[in-house]
Amino acid sequence: MRFNRSIIWFRNNLRLQDNEALVEGIQQSSEYILIYIFDEALWKDNPISMAHASQKRLTFLWQSVANLRESIFSLGGELIISKGNPEKVIEEMAAQYNCDAVFAPKEAGVYEQQSEERLEKVLTRKKIFFNTYAQNTLFHEEDIPWPIGKLPDVFTQFRKENEKQTAVRKLIKTPLEFSLSVKLNEKKVSALDVGISPEKPSAKSVLAFAGGEKEAWARLNHYFWEQDQLKNYKVTRNGLLGSDYSSKFSPWLALGCISPKSIYYEVMRYEAERVKNQSTYWLVFELIWRDYFHFVLKKFQKRLFHASGIKEEEVEWSSDEKIFKRWAAGETGVPFVDANMRELNETGYMSNRGRQNVASFLVKDLGIDWRMGAWYFEHALLDYDVASNWGNWAYVAGVGNDPRENRYFNILSQAKKYDPKGDYVRFWLPELKNVEGFNIHKIALLNKKEYLKQINGTKIDYFDPIVDMKKWDY
Ligand SMILES: Cc1cc2nc3c(=O)[nH]c(=O)nc-3n(C[C@H](O)[C@H](O)[C@H](O)COP(=O)(O)OP(=O)(O)OC[C@H]3O[C@@H](n4cnc5c(N)ncnc54)[C@H](O)[C@@H]3O)c2cc1C
């Protein structure tokens, strides 16, 4: 053994399977303390005066940590749960319990990386070994064909080169027991102790999302093996209603309850045992998108969070609060946008199609600073992932990695394509339920006679559109 007593620090790797930091910590230590620290910053306000994480997002996080604690306990170990400034907690703990090493995953976020760097300095001064492991992407950062600084600025090149030459590393063995885990026998921390009031999922949610490694695998088994939906993914992935139009893996991936490599090897097994087609390929394609945004963040770091984005494009953004709040509340009077925002607010989830539309509408139609949208998503999304969120927002805003100039989503033609009968909008905007078919999307464009006929004489309490919808051909 290299070390007498180590700290194994869980961050966005809340799993036992395929977890290099965990396994290295176990293998290199005579005994070890397992810990998760709720970062107090999640409760603090972001620049749009909202907590970084909503209670819904925190509920999912709590469930994931609690599930990990149960799994570790059932294998003879103890997971300490704490709250505070993670780097300070680790530093104090290492001193208090006389530890000589700390093992942790490497995080993508700039804030987290800065914290890692500070911690490394402090620990090294005290002769405590500190090592982090890159383990939340499909391709390992050391295996991709470029040094991070030379990463291509266009996704297609990134994907093609990696598909040609980068192998996905083997899965890391799952630990079978934790007999060397130090038991501090601390009081069993509850959600309320760390400031989380768990919320039940809305009955209207596409899925009753629950955090944890066990739930992640239950979802994968349901989607791949029981419902056999993977073979249809490419055709259904732009859906809006129901649980199985897409994988819904994102909240578990964001917290590392399951690794992209584990999903990849399950896709390979599905291709061998069931069918290999465009859909099975496409799920891996999307995981490569996820990787790409992670590496883009590594390359550009703080620049990704600037208004001018990685393109350093100076755009005059508005920060009109009134308009922004109407967008955020789903009160713009544009039904397709409002339905998606209301789904997000009530459930913490929104489809990829929805995200692209509401993001484009905020930045291209309303001219609002794209970062206000990204901060709002950071607060509200269960699956908030710093790289995927900021990378996608910058992309839609035209200051990211989109090689096409001026990509624009015409909301009515998108609605026509993806919600032609208006079922999705009817589900989320009950005040419009009497409006038939596609008319629900363009209620503001109907003449008075048509309008009265559509609403069947009932009074409708809905918003006047915030933009002139006549501009959209469909
Ligand atoms: C403005 C905007 C913000 C977004 N913010 C986030 C975010 O914070 N966290 C997040 O995980 N995804 C984000 N996405 C990407 C995407 O919308 C979600 O990953 C997807 O909708 C999650 O549903 P799913 O798991 O069913 O996806 P599936 O279609 O089943 O895809 C499988 C997995 O591939 C990955 N993936 C798919 N599309 C993308 C994409 N465009 N970018 C990166 N990864 C992708 C996800 O990990 C996803 O779980 C954002 C997209 C936009 C346009």
Tell me the span between the first and last alpha carbons: 67 Å
Strand order of the largest sheet: 3-2-1-4-5
Counting H and I runs of at least 4 residues, what is the number of helices? Answer: 18
What is the helix/strand order? EHEHEHEHEHHHHHHHHHHHHHH
Kindly estimate the percentage of residues that lie in beta strands according to DSSP: 5-15%
Net shape: globular
Largest sheet: 5 strands, parallel
Note the quaternary state here: single chain
Question: Care to count the β-strands?
Answer: 5
DSSP helix fraction: 40-55%
Low-confidence stretches: none
Structural class by secondary-structure content: alpha/beta
What Rg is obtained from the alpha carbons, in whole angstroms?
A: 24 Å
Domain Photolyase/cryptochrome alpha/beta: 4-138
Keywords: Chromophore, FAD, Flavoprotein
Function: May have a photoreceptor function.
Protein name: Cryptochrome DASH
